[in-house]
């Protein structure tokens, strides 16, 4: 046993430190009393209230808004309210991600239901003076619809939210993630309490099967079936693992749930532990998520204090405890067997299956691995029933899916939509269309493991099978929108560069094959490609897919194959004409200064290699022999006479 493994097992064997708990709950009835006592905390946020009611101000404190000083905004609100003796009339709290990241920091005022966007510290005084004191909304902070240019004051009236159905994200933007009482007030831990006091493990598994929930980490395996297999596996010691090693470029679904609703993951893991016969759980989370880690730690301690985690939960005889294990940011550790290897203290590499983790996983014991979004759905399935959940979505893909919508789109953010909604609805209604009025070109779903989808397939319903049929995949939920200015060869190179960097190197197909693919793409984008390179790309891609050990290698060529399928003419333009139709590939373009130059000299001062010459108020020139095509001149120029043109 390695030193790391021994230390980890020692931590897992430590009994809960909260032997004396001031808030210790002994039964489900105690929990119900806490819920009733706490429900007033959420009253203004969930109900209409008469004029004159004390207002609540919620400020988004997800990572994006947090980095834009939402913490300071909260402090300013509370200081100003205290200074003006308004603490009896209003209060200010943090909450999780509202999802509309493009417009953060977001401030929402209850019970008015007014939604302010792009708020800064300097706006606090005006919001208090105008909105709270005079009853007048601050109109300049309201959301402006990109199509109609109409100012919209409430969240539910925004196209971004109209077609969303926030189930996994139900508490994000509603509760303070650092207060367990607010989670309990919204029926938190009630599912766990009822299950461990009235149900048998097989009842839990059957309910989950009936709901139709499938894994949201990418594979889409039925969650109830996975729990059932682990339950049937023999062993007195089993483990429940939460996979929070979210690594897709641009994806932040799991991080946002952990930051905004950590108790839902703790409750779901405890339910899972009861269902499969495990008393120990691990949250494997990448160390690059400090805010999520902080709030998860707070939530674990609070759950222990309330006797909702640890020994003899609610005097039911059921024990379940959690530890946090940090990942070092390796994308391959999102694969469950590589993740297990990492927890054990070994190099994060996938292992051959079978046996599957449900039979032999962590330390050789039966183990169930679910990702964050999957777990976030579980408490509410037991609160509202499997029939309710199964009524949402399509025949084989039930419920909702959270996507990180990004790229050339007006409304960037986190969206949760029912399965079966079309890509067109997400891009043009929820997303508000293509930024800058440009033409849509493609959308990449499934991150580096997925594929590009073009205009002709935009009416495809989003579910596991439909996306697979058109050459893409659901993945964990990345959705990158591209317009006419994107070069598809460059896009394929971007994703392949990521997977080459993240390959664990265990199998030759992935370690060597993907590197050769990337070399060919680099050759093509440098204007050195040859016609036979297209056949090489296809043959090598199919070989890598068929012979790689894990999902990383098996799906890595997907962006190459899908862009070649739909945009072969772009590949041929790079190879045969030695040009990049989108003007993206640096080696196939050059910067020139047109007659619109005003001679301000800013371009010359910005050039790192002194390639630009010219006198003040006279047209400048770029020495193409010296120019490194970094684009610094284009960025610095105030009137944009500098153009990127094709090398002919």
Automatic annotation (TrEMBL):
| PROSITE patterns for the chain | 4FE4S_FER_1 (PS00198), 4FE4S_FER_2 (PS51379)
Pfam family for this entry, one? Complex1_51K
Domain of life assignment: Bacteria
Question: What Gene3D superfamilies does this protein's entry cite?
Answer: 3.10.20.600, 3.30.70.20, 6.10.250.1450, Glutaredoxin, NADH-ubiquinone oxidoreductase 51kDa subunit, NADH-ubiquinone oxidoreductase 51kDa subunit, iron-sulphur binding domain
Its transmembrane ranges are: none
Which GO terms label this protein's molecular function in UniProt? Answer: 4 iron, 4 sulfur cluster binding; metal ion binding
Protein keywords: 4Fe-4S, Iron, Iron-sulfur, Metal-binding
The keyword 4Fe-4S belongs to this UniProt entry's keyword annotation: yes
Q: Does the keyword Nucleus apply?
A: no
**Location of the 4Fe-4S ferredoxin-type domain:** 588-617, 618-647
InterPro entries annotated for this entry?
4Fe4S_Fe-S-bd, 4Fe4S_Fe_S_CS, Nuo51_FMN-bd, Nuo51_FMN-bd_sf, Nuop51_4Fe4S-bd, Nuop51_4Fe4S-bd_sf, Thioredoxin-like_sf
Q: Which family does it belong to?
A: Belongs to the complex I 51 kDa subunit family.
What is the official name of this protein in its record? NADH-quinone oxidoreductase subunit NuoF
Q: Which organism is it from?
A: Proteiniclasticum aestuarii
